[in-house]
Structures are given as C-alpha cells and as structure tokens.
Write the structure tokens for this entry.
Amino acid sequence: MSTIRLALAQTQVTTAKHINIKNALSFIEKAKQSKADIIALPELCSNTAEFPVYAEFIPTGETSSALSAAAKKYEIYVIGGSIPERAGSKVYNTCTVWNPAGKLIAKHRK
C-alpha cells in the first residue's frame, strides 16, 4: 500500500496580494521539506474577500502562475485554496489543483 503525505496550511491574509502569495509559497516549500506529496492551501490564501479587486485569469494570473511554478519547483501537488477568477464579466471563487509538473489538472468554481 502506498503512503500519501498531506500538508495543510493556514495563512494570515493581508490586503497585499504579493505578500499573501509569498507566504503561500513559503508554506509550499516547507511542505516539501517535510516530505509532503500534496499541500492544501486555505480558501482566500492570496487575497481578502474583495473578489472583484483581486480577480485574475486562471491559469495566467499572478497567483496561478506562482502556484504552478512552485508545484513544478518542489515537485508537489498544490491545492490552491481559492482564487478569485475573472471570466468575462463574472468573478468566481475558484479552487485550483496543480500537479508536480506545474500543470493545472483541475479547477472548481463555486
């Protein structure tokens, strides 16, 4: 039977998106150092609840790009909490999943 090691992160979110992303990346690095296979970040790990202000396109936005790069760098699955996703005139609360190659393998809008 295989063993899967899961890391869970709880972050302190500020109104500074770049700081929130930096904190999330630090948790991803620590998860890999702890030999985790998967890390799950919390909802709203990169922003506050002001969705229209922080909305970005997935997979090309700032948060998506950072999570993808970290998944690839540390060869770890990353469950990206949620990212405010801009799609046309709408904004969704979207959870992303990145594989160890940095590829987006799943997303769920709520």
